[in-house]
Structure formats: structure tokens, C-alpha cells
Write a structure and sequence with these properties.
With about 240 residues, the protein is α/β, with parallel strands linked by helices. The protein has 8 helices and 12 strands. The chain is about 40% helix and about 20% strand. It is elongated, with a radius of gyration of 22 Å.
Length: about 240
């Protein structure tokens, strides 16, 4: 209350700053982007390796990721694949690779935009704002990077599975099927949807593929494959993953 008997309103906090993860192995570029984004109110974190990028994304849950393709440990496309296993966060590729094939590969792998080095800061900031706005309109909530059951653990970012502390080898098709179910955990995934996602549109009627590969996954992951607790079948409809 003020001296004249009025009340003083508590200022309302503004919206939290947009979190940006910048991934690049060039220290000068990291510093330049950290400074330019920081002075504009962005909350900036950085990583210089692909493995560091995946860890930072899982821990900090950035609103947008700026990703270089030429990293010292992982190719940027591998990082994209790891991210797209569990999150829809917008990714802007920032790369010296200017070939159209590289751009197509990055966009097909899940990138939202592609900026070629060297670049103008104004254009880059405009693309960043567009990516954030688009994500805000379409966001439906990201999942968790690591999903733990009482039988096994799935790391969607690292694209790996462990059981009793030991890695479980999955074929690419087995992983694709498991990833699809885990990303939609608790929800029914239809047979056609699963076939289209993992095998492609030409295989939408090949339902026997699903039975074969789900059986393989159950043998590798379920304590009692004949009575599964996590990889469930809903007859004639599809499949459901339950933790």
C-alpha cells in the first residue's frame, strides 16, 4: 500500500526468454552467435560436438537448435536423426555445405531450415524468429529423450536400448518399429500407420511384417515374450507401447 492509501501492483513477469542451442565446432562463430543472440534477449547455450548437442538438447529442452553439419564426432545428419527420435524442436542447419543435395538431405532428415555459411546476421535472425513462431503455433509437446520401463530403457536421442544395464542390438527395422511405438507411448498406433512409417507407403498391406518384427522385439526386450507387458497387440487394429 502507498502513503495515500492506494495499492501498488506487483509487476507481472514477462515471458521467459527463447532458449537457443547453438552447435558448432568453430569457437569464433559460437562466440559471435552467443553475443548477438544474447544482446537480443535469447537464452543461449552452446555445444561443439554432436554428442554434446544431444545431451544439451535432452537436458535443456531448447526452443530452437542451430546445428552445423560438420562436427568432429558425429555428422550433423546423425544428430538430426537422434533429435527427431524424440523431439519436434525446430532445427536450423548452419553449414558451409552449399550443394543442393546436402540441403535436400538435411531437410529430409528433419531440418526446418538451411542457412549457408557465410551468412548475414539479419537474415539469420529473421529465419530464427520464423522457426520459433512456427513451432509455437504447432507445438504439441515433446516427449522425453529417455524412456524407462521396469524391463528395459530406450534412449531416443542416442538411438539405443539397454536391458539389465547391457546394450541390446536391434536391426534398423526393429529400431524403427520400437521408436515409432515409444514416441506414441500409451497411444494406439495403427497397422497401416506403422507400416507406412517404417517400411514405406508400398508396404501398407504387409501386416505379417508387423507380427514378425514385433515378435523379435518381444524376444529381445520382454521378460516373458509370450505374455508381453510393454509391446502390446490390439487385434485387427494396431499396437501400443506401455511403460
Amino acid at each position: 500500500m502507498t502513503e495515500n492509501g492506494g495499492t501498488t501492483e506487483t509487476p507481472r513477469p514477462g515471458p521467459p526468454p527463447t532458449r537457443v542451442l547453438v552447435v558448432d565446432d568453430e569457437p569464433q562463430l559460437l562466440r559471435a552467435l552467443r553475443i548477438n543472440l544474447g544482446v537480443r534477449g535469447y537464452d543461449v547455450s552452446t555445444a561443439s560436438t554432436g554428442a554434446g548437442a544431444l545431451r544439451a538438447a535432452a537436458e535443456r529442452h531448447p526452443d530452437v537448435i542451430v546445428l552445423d553439419l560438420g562436427l568432429p564426432d558425429l555428422d550433423g545428419l546423425e544428430v538430426l536423426a537422434g533429435l527427431r527420435g524424440w523431439t519436434t524442436v525446430p532445427v536450423i542447419v548452419l553449414s558451409a555445405r552449399s550443394d543442393s543435395g546436402d540441403k535436400v538431405d538435411a531437410l529430409d532428415a528433419g531440418a526446418d531450415d538451411y542457412v549457408t555459411k557465410p551468412f548475414g546476421m539479419d537474415e539469420f535472425l529473421a529465419r530464427l524468429r520464423v522457426a520459433v513462431r512456427r513451432a509455437a503455433r504447432t507445438a504439441d509437446g515433446d516427449g522425453e529423450a529417455v524412456v524407462v520401463t521396469d524391463s528395459f530403457t530406450v534412449d531416443l536421442a542416442a538411438r539405443s536400448v539397454t536391458r539389465d544395464g547391457q546394450p541390446v542390438h536391434l536391426t534398423p527395422t526393429e529400431w524403427g518399429m520400437l521408436e515409432m511405438l515409444v514416441r506414441h507411448r500409451g497411444k494406439l498406433v495403427g497397422q497401416r500407420e506403422l507400416l507406412r512409417e517404417v517400411w514405406g507407403p508400398a508396404y501398407e498391406t504387409e501386416t505379417h511384417y508387423l507380427r514378425v518384427y514385433l515378435g523379435q522385439l518381444r524376444r529381445k526386450l520382454e521378460p516373458d515374450p509370450a505374455h508381453p507387458r510393454h509391446l502390446l497387440t490390439e487385434a485387427g487394429m494396431g499396437y501400443r507401447f506401455r511403460t
